[in-house]
Amino acid sequence: MEVTALCIRLLIIIWMLLLTQVQDSCYAQKAYAALPHLVPARLQYFEYESISFNCEGLHGSLGLGVMRRLPSESATCGKNWGFSNGSHCIIRSVYVEDSGEYWCETGDGKKSDTVNVTVTAGSVILETPVIVMEGEAVTLHCKNKTASNISASFYKNDLFIKNISTGNLIIQSVSKCDEGLYKCRISGAGESPESWLSVKEYHKETIPLCSDQLPVLLYLLIRTVVTVLWVALLLLVLRKRHYEK
Ligand SMILES: *[C@@H]1O[C@H](CO)[C@@H](O)[C@H](O)[C@H]1NC(C)=O
Ligand SMILES: *[C@@H]1O[C@H](CO)[C@@H](O)[C@H](O)[C@H]1NC(C)=O
Ligand SMILES: *[C@@H]1O[C@H](CO)[C@@H](O)[C@H](O)[C@H]1NC(C)=O
Ligand SMILES: *[C@@H]1O[C@H](CO)[C@@H](O)[C@H](O)[C@H]1NC(C)=O
Ligand SMILES: *[C@@H]1O[C@H](CO)[C@@H](O)[C@H](O)[C@H]1NC(C)=O
Question: For the Ig-like domain, which residue ranges apply (predicted)?
């Protein structure tokens, strides 16, 4: 009786340990997939709009901050540009001079990819997401200050693509081939700045193990059960010998 109870308890403990181990490796994989990245809502802004940046994938890192490199200077958020509200770096009102490269950096020097933010004094912007994952649908939205969903002409790498009456260029399933410099033009209002559409490919090592972990868990479970049964058998044999004496 005692031995059985002991074995069950042992089994549970070992199982829990294995489970946490697997979960840990799963989180490690996820953390890798979520490489540190800076999150502004889009890449282009009109002057006097407000931008807020957030660093993702670096939670718990010490001295985490949003940085920028402009032709004029390079500095941490809050030093001589923007302010931090604890989680986000915010610029209340942006100017053309705020255009430049922005990134996240930790106290120990880990950096995210840089993001080129463009502020225009013109009246057309192309709303471009910072990054899209391969296979996702993406909408590049061309708008002027006062009107949305109006006819616009789209250009990729300076080559005319097409006119779209809604002002929304939709790519259903993006691939690396869709990367490039995009801009749009609204007749009568003008042209947007250019922004680079980044398409991130799925890499083997960034695919979380978690989705197909069931076979691994089953294997571990079976291994655990077998091990525990062996131990139980051994204990039983030992006990028997003990009583036979
Ligand atoms: C900081 O600002 C962002 C964006 O405006 C907001 O979503 C967030 O809740 C704010 N965080 C704090 C701690 O106030
Ligand atoms: C950002 O702009 C700089 C200068 O124009 C360029 O060298 C760099 O490749 C751009 N980076 C991205 C991610 O678009
Ligand atoms: C513009 O189009 C989008 C998508 O088609 C729609 O969600 C949005 O409400 C439209 N905006 C206006 C101002 O019509
Ligand atoms: C696209 O729109 C522009 C401006 O409205 C016009 O000049 C041009 O002819 C159009 N191009 C095509 C191929 O429809
Ligand atoms: C935006 O587009 C609309 C429609 O073409 C036009 O009437 C308006 O003047 C434009 N606004 C600006 C600021 O260019």
Answer: 115-198
Cα 38-161-177 angle, rounded to 5 deg: 50
| Structure tokens belonging to residue 148 | 């949305």
90 alpha carbon – ligand 3 mean position (Å): 27
**CB of 154 closer than 8 Å to CB of 171:** no
User: Domain 36-204, what fold?
Assistant: Immunoglobulin-like (2.60.40)
Q: Are 170 and 236 in contact (CB under 8 A)?
A: no
Token duo for residue 214: 């069931």
Residue whose CB lies within 8 A of the most ligand 2 atoms, among 70, 196, 197, 200, for a mutation test: 196
The per-residue pLDDT for range 182-237, each reduced to its tens digit, is 999 999 999 999 999 999 887 644 444 444 566 667 777 888 888 888 988 888 88
Q: Which residue has the tokens 């260029």?
A: 169
- Please tell me the distance between residue 83's alpha carbon and the centre of ligand 1 in angstroms: 11
Nearest CA to ligand 4 atom 1: 163
How far is it, in rounded angstroms, from Cα 243 to Cα 245?
5
Evaluate whether 28 touches 210 at the Cβ level (below 8 Å): no
- Alpha carbon distance 144, 127 (integer Å): 10
Question: Residue 179 class from Cβ within 10 Å (0-12 exposed, 13-18 middle, 19+ buried)?
Answer: middle
Indicate whether residue 83 lines ligand 2 (CB < 6 A): no
